[in-house]
Amino acid sequence: MKTVSDVLTNISYGGDYNPEQWTEDVWLKDAKLMRKAGVNLISVGIFSWAVLEKEEGNYDFSWLDKVMDMLHDHGVGVCLATATASPPAWLSMKYPDSVAVNQYNVPYSFGSRQHYSPNSPEYRSAMVRLVKKLADRYKDHPALKMWHINNEYACHMSECYSDYSLQAFRKWLLNRYEHIDELNERWGTNFWSQRYNSFEEITFSGNSPTLVNPGQELDYKRFMNDSFLELYKLEKDILREVTPNVPIFTNFMFEFKPLDYFQWAEELDVITWDSYPDPREGIPVAHAMQHDIMRSLKKGQPFFLMEQVTNQVNWRDINLPKKPGEMRLWSYAAIAHGGDGIMFFQWRQSRAGAEKFHGAMIPHSSDETSRVYREVKQLGDELKKLDSLVGARVPAKVAIVFDWENWWAVELDGKPHNKLDYLDHVKSYYQVFFANNIAVDFVRAGDDLSAYELVVAPMLYMIKLGDDKNLENYVDTGGTLVVSYFSGIADENDRIHLGHYPAPLRHFLGMYVEEFVPYAEGKTNQIVHNAQHFSCSTWSDIIRLEGAHTLASYKDEWYKDMPAVTSHSFGKGKAIYVGTEPEYDYVNQLITTLAAEKNIEPPAEGPPNVEMVERNSDEANHLIVINHNEDPAVIQLNSNKNYVNLLTGGTIQKEVSVEGTDVLVLRCE
Ligand code: GLA
């Protein structure tokens, strides 16, 4: 099996292409323009099912043959999509049960996209037939570089309550628990008289009078995740058999809760994802975090930015364009965090349809002197100089524990605080590393942590079998672990780990939590650390020490002077517990102190809002510098080595200046 960097040895550059929206004369113009813009990879066919199979079993690949040939003749490779993301009207009409049903038992209507039920046998068999046809037809086509399965699974429609889905859910539960008594035990169904005699008695809880059994809710989320993953695997198995050397993927999304991408990553040859930062947010820190998550899904293997927009999307309330230079800057940010491909939605802006005001590489005007096209071409020209980055990795000594099932569980109803936002809380730690230019990987609590000097486990509410031992072993063998409030509370069925919270982590944290104190909205308190005062909000744990010592204590309220942040030496390492939501300055101080103790340093020194990230391979080490400021910045390099500026060709030592809204890609000589 070839890896993606064996197949694509340059930084990939291109976007989604929908030639079926255009006449043939436009195709030729497009192929020439692509070449001119430095495009080397194009995704074709993502929403083409209705034109590939106009009636059931009546396939027409003639137009796609021409497009594939034409792209190949112009030196453009193809990510060929399997076109299964949106079934045609005839399919939904002929097989009404293939359509997904919402939680109130209403089927979705046709006329938009992605309306199919993942558990419909009719959808599945039509899908399998189409994928087989595509694989057989294009298996030897020289343009075929990768397979793009479906599109953004579960986007728009992540829950289906159809009869097919219910039957599949019961089967899924039977498979997981084998006996109904086991399910009753795990779901705790003696509560509120929820006991089941058989799997057949289980129904969906979409229209329930009040809170639903949390074990059931969690399993429903797992089941839907698995339903979509099963679809992906069905397609993947066909493609793998016919084309064993062509890498296969589907595209992931930003902060997407319904799918456990760690689980999915095992089935993908390369991680690809779609990133649409809102220009209103300023520096896209949240997107940097997603880049790092995406890179971490396959343990540091570079990812592809599969979609972004050149200037503006059309699906926000108000769609601000990226300012001049921002598209380029944010593309380099993706590369810095581990991207080997920079792609757009889409190549040519649509004339009709719901996305006609969505930006593209070629705007409606087709004007080659337009700002958009000039920026597209400039980036395309530059990326040709960056071959040495392909396959290079981001070295990280820090990891943040991130877990989709934990995300699901922590945000289910019925908690002491029902406005906790897991991602926001994770970000409150991530942004400190981002601001200090300390590279971060994301891991699961059960992963091998031995490569990291510092691990942060924010709000790790769910501790699964073995996670506690893994974290304990990490600290015992010399690691520094930071755990924050509402961690170590429940098992994988959302049943409490009995004993004092956080029961499974308590002995190596050297403390326990006696009570939770959620704050009313707007309320703050203060914590005092070495006579310095910092604000805190959202939550306070009432902490009792069992060997740990206090780093910071609360200033006010009935728990005044009680510990808020603790530290415990355990084995060769130490475990820190943060029982509240401190302001940024405190988290920054705590984390940078812990990082300094472990000699974790940024790769270079510069002013605020300048990102600096290393990407290294056996052949070459790189430093990528991204100046998010409008003013120039001066960077001090940490080593005495010579660096080559890959974009401009000059040599640099010790100090270098970078213009505002500009980047440097430096290769260490
Ligand atoms: C998603 C989809 C694309 C397109 C873009 C628009 O990422 O995959 O088909 O709809 O959004 O931003």
Shape: globular
Task: Estimate nothing, just give the exact number of structural domains.
Answer: 3
> Approximately how much beta-strand content do the residues carry?
15-25%
| Ligands (ions, cofactors included) | alpha-D-galactopyranose
- Give the name of the CATH superfamily of the largest domain: Glycosidases
Q: Tell how many strands the DSSP assignment holds.
A: 30
SSE class? alpha/beta
The largest sheet, given as strand count, sense and whether it forms a barrel, is: 11 strands, mixed
Which range best describes the helical content: under 10%, 10-25%, 25-40%, 40-55%, 55-70% or over 70%? 25-40%
How big is the Rg? 26 Å
Oligomer: single chain
Please write the CATH class name of the largest domain. Alpha Beta
Q: What do the pLDDT scores average to?
A: 97
Number of helices: 18
CATH-scheme architecture of the largest domain: Alpha-Beta Barrel
Show unreliable segments.
Answer: none
End-to-end Cα distance, whole Å, is 32 Å
Instruction: Indicate the CATH topology of the largest domain.
Output: TIM Barrel
